[in-house]
Amino acid sequence: MSLQSSDAAFELVTLRGGGRSIRSKAHGETMHIGTDPRTEAHELHVAQQRLAERLRDWHQAEPFVIWDVGLGPAGNAITAIEVICEMIHNKTRESSTSVELHSYEISTEVLEFALRHAGELEYLNGWEAILRELLETGKASPAPSIEWRLHRGDFSRQPHDAPAPSVIFFDPYSPAQNSEMWNLETFRSMWKVVNTPGAPDCTMTNYTRSTSVRVTMLLAGWFVGTGVSTGEKEVTTIAANRLDLLMKPLDDTWLARVRSSTNAEPMRGRNNERGPISPEDYARLIAHPQFLG
Ligand SMILES: C[S@@+](CC[C@H](N)C(=O)[O-])C[C@H]1O[C@@H](n2cnc3c(N)ncnc32)[C@H](O)[C@@H]1O
Questions:
Q1: Using CA atoms, how far apart are residues 52 and 50, in angstroms rounded to an integer?
Q2: Given this model, what pLDDT does residue 108 score?
Q3: Coil, strand, or helix at residue 4?
Q4: Is the CB of 41 under 6 A from ligand 1?
Q5: Does 116 have pLDDT greater than 80?
Q6: What is the CATH number of the domain that holds 242?
Q7: pTM as predicted
Q8: Residue 229 near residue 33, CB atoms below 8 Å
Q9: Is any atom of ligand 1 closer than 6 Å to the C-beta of 107?
Q10: Domain membership flag for residue 28
Q11: Which of 94, 181, 182, 194 is a Cys-bridge partner for 175, taking CB atoms 3.0 to 4.6 Å apart?
Q12: 230, 256 in Cβ contact below 8 A?
């Protein structure tokens, strides 16, 4: 990765695959991994969640809802929008189906930086006006049947007032830098939304493979499985509100690893210090419906 351009808070970097991304100096983290932002968004989120197929098969009157948690420089959101626009163009989607994209972001500074470098960031080309509208008004319509909303503020402290999602792109900074987004309280508040009667099938994708994060998601209620490989990550994580939505649910072999791990403790509050899982938490974990019978 090499440095290209910089201001006080962010700098433009070149990823190993040649694509450009942005690094937050404060968090010491780059927004995307692998070859380029679009490839990561596609492999990890859009393709893994079978967005196109699920949209094609969506025959309900309500909109198909996507939550984009951690909008950042909008790599995931734009990639999803492009897939939906292509479906509209190719007429592989009923034009009456509407899509709501709800993006959550605590600070839009990174998106503003990205817009100043849209030409270098390639994936933003052509989307500048829509992104400015989103920033200025909190909403935009990238295509006639797509409504895009920006929810500003701390996602971990907000009541989730958007409709229950079918798809969640969960993309904060790492637990070490952004612990409030990865704790039991945050995953529980999301679980409550997707576990209400009438909520659609929901999947949530993320780049982590951390045992502690997976334990935390499970204790919050989510069903959790191994996700696809992307960039330098051999495995990632996918969670769902139903076990049968997962291709590779975590199993007894993984439970055995939890038991022997020195840092499988779930994340609570803002404490990112982790030790072995306690007997009480382990008992709760093995009582999760994912591991019963
Ligand atoms: C890795 S970047 C997101 C990259 C983006 N999804 C993309 O595809 O280009 C993480 C983003 O999460 C945002 N974030 C961190 N903590 C947050 C919080 N508590 N609430 C809402 N957004 C948060 C950060 O400001 C940052 O923009």
A1: 6
A2: 96
A3: strand
A4: yes
A5: yes
A6: 3.40.50.150
A7: 0.95
A8: no
A9: yes
A10: no
A11: 182
A12: no
